[in-house]
# Entry
Amino acid sequence: MVNFGRLITAMVTPFDQQGEIDWTALSSLIDYLIEEQHSESLVVSGTTGESPTLSDDEKIKLFAFVVEKAAGRCKIIAGTGSNNTRHSIHLTRAAEQAGADGVLLVVPYYNKPNQEGMYQHFESIANSTSLPAILYNVPSRTGASLTAETTLRLAQIPNIVGTKECASLAQVTQIAASAPEGFLVYSGDDASGLPAMAVGAYGIISVASHVVGAEMKQMIDSLVGGHSQEAAKLHQQLFPIFKGLFGCPHPLPNPVAVKYALELRGIKVGSVRLPLIPPTEDEAEFIKKLFTR
# Structure
């Protein structure tokens, strides 16, 4: 089975001034994330990539472009989940054809299926592809939560190989404690990443790794290497950035803050698509201060 590594970046989608995908900026971003921020895998067209406002044609072009540009330097995980099982199967097959190494499948949102409906949704997608699939449970966005019991049931399907878990540390613990060998739990929350790994998560699917990925890799390596105090110190140093990029105390939707933070570092990714809007002057100043302490 594919090893996606411990530090995975949920990558932003660069846009130009007309709001179209900026392919030149994307090419540079991929190099930067791999070479400077030590991303071991990239998620393409996830929430951070503004998947709700990307067309299917844009997503499929993104899959192929990122696979070609990465050229085996890291693994590519395509965000192909939706609240429409047939649509997810269509995108998953397109991702496989484009050469992606795996897919990320979010819990169906808005229509709020029950646990059996979720099970059959993910089972159907997994059965449509030979690619390894990572589940994505993020109740704050979807309005529904995949239980630990259903996750563990899905873990018995051979090509469902992990979950990105954002529900709670208790759920991370329960899944990690009972999952079959080879099924990996990833934290989907930067601020909870190290605590999640301490209770059994394998790694982090991160937003902050766009700007502090090298430091996060050091933190993860310290923990895995048995240096828990060093890892804790690094986590404490990074914690204001983890929280601040999600707008504490100014609530900002992902990826508004991280795109602005990248621009501050000279990494051109452009702004966001409506209905997201750029940070206000006060919010921009707050983000600047995160990196000048």
